[in-house]
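Lab manual, section 2.4: Encoding a predicted structure.

Procedure: take the sequence of the chain (233 residues), apply the prediction step described in section 2.3, and record the output as structure tokens. A sample record is shown.
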Amino acid sequence: MFLTPASFIPILIFSVVVLIIVLSVVLSRKNIVLRKLAKFKHNRISQFRNNELTKVTGKVLEVETPFVAPFSKRPCVAYIFKIQQRVSTGKSSHWKTLVKKEDIQDFFIEQRGDLVMVKPSMQSSNFYSFMVEDQSIRSGTFKDPSPEFKKVLDDSGVDSETWLGFNKTLKYTERILEIGETITVGGIAKWKVLNEPINGHNYSKIAALESGPKQKLIITDHPKAVTPLDRGL
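Recorded output:
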């Protein structure tokens, strides 16, 4: 049985759609981060070897005063939030990003009483991360923004209504690395001598995970990055 040009076109379209879906999954930020972390050696902090590619799972602790997430108001060491508006273009519509803000600070990972220092930097882009979506809230034609959402919109300089007084269709999403949350970080293992002790810890040196010229820190709070040995930390 031979395919005619007319019958071949639907098959071609279907194949292209499937390929796009597969590529979008394979190349998603989450899956890229999980694949990168799979190449790192899992170690307890006490077993760190200098210059070895190592990943650690543990709880986030602050080094300095933590951020406060804009909507949830939870203390965190990293956040990404977006405000988007649903806009129509002819027969289709899409989400247009109006505001996107992110930041990250130095933090510790605590694992069974041991600490490891992590120093990500927005300026030098020395890290690659994926954070699970923690908050999502919307407003629309028949749904006023909540007082908390309205406060975030006002603080970000976004009007919740059109010039005619109708509610805009808006969406807010928030991703954070919360204090006390279990996360996984991969990097180059180092041991650092401390010039001054850390409050509450009697250490003369501390483990660190660092980036290098060809290696970024890999950071995620996705549960699939947690090894079986570390579940329940």
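Check your result against the sample. The CA atoms of residues 185 and 219 lie 5 Å apart.
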